[in-house]
Amino acid sequence: xxxxxxxxxxxxxxxxxxxxxxxxxxxxxxxxxxxxxxxxxxxxxxxxxxxxxxxxxxxxxxxxxxxxxxxxxxxxxxxxxxxxxxxxxxxxxxxxxxxxxxxxxxxxxxxxxxxxxxxxxxxxxxxxxxxxxxxxxxxxxxxxxxxxxxxxxxxxxxxxxxxxxxxxxxxxxxxxxxxxxxxxxxxxxxxxxxxxxxxxxxxxxxxxxxxxxxxxxxxxxxxxxxxxxxxxxxxxxxxxxxxxxxxxxxxxxxxxxxxxxxxxxxxxxxxxxxxxxxxxxxxxxxxxxxxxxxxxxxxxxxxxxxxxxxxxxxxxxxxxxxxxxxxxxxxxxxxxxxxxxxxxxxxxxxxxxxxxxxxxxxxxxxxxxxxxxxxxxxxxxxxxxxxxxxxxxxxxxxxxxxxxxxxxxxxxxxxxxxxxxxxxxxxxxxxxxxxxxxxxxxxxxxxxxxxxxxxxxxxxxxxxxxxxxxxxxxxxxxxxxxxxxxxxx
Length: 489
What we know:
Blueprint: E1 6-11, H1 23-38, E2 47-54, E3 67-76, E4 79-89, E5 94-99, H2 114-135, E6 141-145, H3 150-159, E7 170-175, H4 186-191, H5 210-217, E8 220-223, H6 226-231, H7 242-247, E9 252-254, H8 284-294, E10 305-312, H9 321-327, E11 334-341, H10 343-355, E12 360-363, H11 368-377, E13 380-383, H12 393-399, E14 403-407, H13 410-415, E15 428-430, H14 435-449, H15 452-464, H16 469-485
Helix pairs in contact: 1-16, 2-3, 3-5, 8-11, 9-14, 12-15
């Protein structure tokens, strides 16, 4: 590795393939690898990026053998806690795993006890900083994600003033989901020696809360889509921090997440009935027919098959579905709903199936293989989210020639071009999260579906889009480079 490589420490609470709970796991498991692949260390624009995640007690999905490399001491009140560091090193990416008593709490990554989660992630965050000093590997940038790593960003800010080792280290904090602020973890930060930011521009209630402290102290902030970067400056999406975020608007940008285009590829996907490409799109209808048959639905290529792959909760807008589908019951369509979450929304989906037994299938679980069959076998995908920082399902859907019908918010607005815009269009958007607006969007899609030439155009344009991680990686490296050139505050 060259001494000229840009050194980036990427820290996250989860990362595939080690542990995945939500979209953060996909990002942290894919973006650093893409950056290292596109900008390999030792090349003219090389980036030596390394990943750090907690070594949870139930972690067992290793792509390599973790080797113990060093122990650290992290001060907690009047005692020091041991942090053991393990290294998983392969050709793709060096991954450090941090083990310690606070990380061993509970069987879940995220628990229902915010104080103990605060201990877990503050311990982890401080251990990441201690690790760089122990290895004498001075990062140019520490890249944190969400509230779980905000203590590292805040601690760096505090230490940079008097610690020569970190004097030139910059920080980037990525917001994946702003409402998750880390409320309830405040006392954990204080126990690890991180004081409230009492004379800061943060609102009083936020001066001890992890994510606001990270947003206060980060040299650069980014969200996972350009649209969400604008939305968090508003009262509707700002989670009470909108005025503070407006004051930092010049330091906030948005970069879209990507998808693994090898993993999500209808040409090679082993879990769909028939493989196809945009050049052999006629084969896609065989997926639909076989999928209809497997669901015990009427096999008819002219009946639109509507899909939904979602977490069943209020944010995702799934509560709008029953009234919306009932309002279009006079039109020919079938629907497959896959997901789990809020028990009331699950129950409503099952009631829908009972009400329309020949048209609707509701499968109340997360089923990865069935999700792929929905992407490849249904004609359109519903994404009525009330807010969506980025969203991946619309990118996957378009990759598979499935036309998204989505609310115009966050990353959905950034990645889907509405049908009204003509030859550039890739889907259908609606503005208000209401049954009326959602219904209008589906009706528009059903009308266009009857014109096979126009529908095929939507499919092909969607399949041509580049939502690869390589594209996102280049934008992050550009942001890293600009950040290193910014003068220290």
